[in-house]
Write a structure and sequence with these properties.
globular; 4 helices; 42% helix; 99 residues; 2 strands; mainly alpha
């Protein structure tokens, strides 16, 4: 095509659950940290799938609509480990310009 528009059949979107990747990275590393594992997983998926578009989403801070609908939502979960949310914030800050 000469108009610069990529046909839909050639477009590929990769969508990541940022908090899921962050938690996985945190709990599978020693010492516990998010950034190396997070970017390794994203980079591996980008290399494997060669997307034209990439989106990483993160959960909004609580309370969310789920907390309002069901006050006991996540009531039995242990608290988030100290340092994990700070690492998530660093991932967002670093990745924001290119994601």
């Amino acid at each position: 095509m000469t108009n610069g528009i990529i046909p839909n059949s050639q477009k590929r979107l990769l969508l990541f659950d940022g908090h899921a990747l962050a938690f996985h990275s945190w709990f599978t590393s020693y010492p516990n940290e998010v950034m190396p594992g997070f970017f390794r997983m994203v980079g591996s998926a980008v290399k494997r799938h060669a997307p034209t578009h990439l989106i990483v989403t993160f959960d909004p801070p609580p309370p969310t609509f789920r907390h309002k609908m069901y006050p006991d939502y996540k009531a039995n979960r242990p608290p988030v480990p100290e340092g994990l949310l700070e690492d998530c914030e660093r991932v967002r800050d670093i990745s924001n310009p290119w994601m």
